[in-house]
Amino acid sequence: MTTTPGGPALPAPEPVADEPETTEDLLLRAAAGDEAAFAQVYDALSASVFGTCLAVLRDRDHAAEVLQEVMVEVWRTAARFDPARGTARTWALTLAHRRAVDRVRAVQAQRNRDQRALDEQVERPFDVVAEEVEESMDRARVRHCLDGLTPTQHEAVTLAYYGGRTYREVADELAAPLATVKSRIRDGLLRLRDCLGVAA
């Protein structure tokens, strides 16, 4: 206790407690690598950051993901924070808004790509689809009719018309006389014509 001249004793003054650190102070400490300070920054800002993200994204899962991205960015770029330009909360919410808008654009771009792909599959003109079906059926019929040829006819016709070889090249490859090869191809084509129902 202290006394005053001629007066009663006065109680000793209480020591002045340190003022609690502001979020700005904590962010500056986090910029220096103080993880404990960043944990306090996270606790102080995460609810506001999440709210901003949710307001833009309107999806809690996306908002939660962007919250984590923003807080990682706050940790990594804390050294860029300038207290003279605004509060830590304002800085973090600016980052949050930018990230959330980027996510909206990315999600919309993906939806647009998916829709274009779906449109290309669904909205093909009917005649194109019909033509593809017809070609597929024609190929199946030709394969069926080719299987009805004799082995030598099948081989000669396949080499000439699907392999793009001349009669001479087919004869050389089969080691058969040219006249024989021509006969096989002619007979094979006649049988194909009959099988496919093509008018002579």
Automatic annotation (TrEMBL):
- Does the record's keyword annotation contain 4Fe-4S? no
Q: Where is this region: Disordered?
A: 1-21
GO terms, molecular function: DNA binding; sigma factor activity
Gene3D superfamilies, sorted? 1.10.1740.10, Winged helix-like DNA-binding domain superfamily/Winged helix DNA-binding domain (1.10.10.10)
Keywords of the record, alphabetical order, are:
Sigma factor, Transcription, Transcription regulation
Q: Which family does it belong to?
A: Belongs to the sigma-70 factor family. ECF subfamily.
Name it. RNA polymerase sigma-70 factor (ECF subfamily)
Q: Which organism is it from?
A: Cellulomonas cellasea
